[in-house]
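Render 50S ribosomal protein L24 in 3D.
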Amino acid sequence: MTTAVKLHVKKGDTVVVLSGKDKGKQGKIVEALPKKAKVVIEGINKVKRHTKPSQSNPQGGIIVKEAAMSSSKVMLVCPACKKPTRIKKTAVAGGFARTCKKCGEVIDK
C-alpha cells in the first residue's frame, strides 16, 4: 500500500481543471483521496458505468458518475480574489494555514 500524500486541496474547495478533456472547468471537491493522490470533483470527469441488476438497483443499466482525477491536474481557486492560485503555508496561532499567493488572503479560517 502506498503512503498518503499531503494534498494542496481539500474537500469543499473550489478548483479549476488544468489539463484533460475538462480543461478550464471549475467545480467543488466532493471527495479527497490522499492515499491515491486523487480528488473527485462535482460535475467534472464524468464516466459511464454499466451495472447489472441488483437488490439495491433492480433495473440495472448505465450509471453516469464522477471519477477520481489526479490532484496535480487541479488548481485551487481563491475564495477572496476568485482567481486560480498556488498556495503558501503561513504560521498562525494554531499552526499553519493555507494562504493565496496572489492576494495574500488566508484561505483556511
